[in-house]
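Sequence in, structure out. First:
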Amino acid sequence: MAEIKSAIELAMEKTRDLVVSSEEREAMAMREIEDKVKAVLRRYVEEMVDADDASKELDRISADKALKKAIIVDTLVEEFDVHKDNERLLALFSAAGIELPQSLRSELERLNNAFREEVEAREMVSRKKIRDDLAGLGVAGSAVEVNLAAWDEWREEVEKAADVFRKNMETLKEKVKTTSGHVLKQV
C-alpha cells in the first residue's frame, strides 16, 4: 500500500539538497532586521510605545551597529510624508541615537508647514466653489455645511498639492540618507 505524504513532507523531500548561499543568508538577515525595525516604528507611530520604549526595543535588535543604523535611517526616512506630522519621526531619530543636522530638521518642518498652508488655501477655494455650485442648484443658506471629503474635486486638489510637495519630500529624503552617512545598498 502506498504511503500518503503531506504537502510539507513532499516539499521537504524536494528541498533537502538545496543550500542557501551567503548572499541569500545576508539578504534574509537584513530583511529580518528591517522587519523588526518596521515593527518598532509602527508601534511608535501608532502611539503604542513612547520614544524611550522604542529606543530600548531598537537597542535590543541584535545586528551590526552600522547596518542597524542604516536600516533605521532608511526606514524612518521612507515614512516621511507630506500628509503626516513628521515630528514624531524626527524624535525617534534622536531616540535611536541618530542626530540630524538642524538644517534638515528645519527644511522638513518648512516643507510640512508649506504643504499644510497650501492645502488650507485650496480648501478655502474649494469650499467657496462648492458652495457656489450648490447655490446654483438652489441649495444655499447658513445650514449648508460643505463636506469636502465627499467631493471628488477636493480629493483632486489635495493630490495636486501633494504631487508638488512629494517631489520636494523625495529630495529631502535623499539628503537625510546621505547626510546621516548611512546609505543602504539595495539587496
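Second:
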Amino acid sequence: MNAAVITPSFESSPPAAPSSAPVPKRPQRNPHRLRLDKTPPDARRRAAAVLEVLAGMRTCPQAAETLGLSLAAYYNLEQRAMEGLVQGCLPVPKGRQKRHDEQVNTLGRQCKKLQQDLLRYQALVRAQQRSSGLAAPPEPVKAKGKRAKRPMVRAFKVVKQLRTTAATPDSVPLVAVA
C-alpha cells in the first residue's frame, strides 16, 4: 500500500523574513483556570471535601472525619460553601462600578467647592450692600432665659438602658430605639 504524504499549506509557503528583534510571547491566560495561588491550603482541603460530598464520592461523616470537624460543623461549612457558590453565580453588573471611597472623596471636594462659593457670594453681597448704602441686616436676637436643650443621641439612650438591665441578669433587655 502506497501512502501519500500530505503537507499542510502553511508549510509549503516560503518562510517569512526574520525580524531584527525577537518578539517576546505573552503567556496565554486561561479564563477557566482557577486562581488558587493566594488561597490557603486548609481552605482548598475544605472546598475539595465539600465538592467530593456533593459529587457523591464521600459521605458527610467521612468528610467531617477527614477534616477533623464534628458533623454539625461540617454541615455549617457546607452551608457556607453553598452560599458562596450562589453568591458567585449572581450576575455581575456591566461597566465600571463606582467605589464608595471614591464617591466620598468626590462629594467632599464638591462640598468644599460649594462652601468656597458660598463665602465668595456672601462677600459679594456685603460689598454690594456697602456700595449701595444699605445697612447690614441685624443679627437675630436669642431669647434670654431659655437654655438650649442638649440633644440626646439615641445610641447613648440604648447604652444607658443596656447598663441598667445588665445589672439584673434575670431580666431580658428590651432595646427600644426611638
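Remark: The mean pLDDT is 79.
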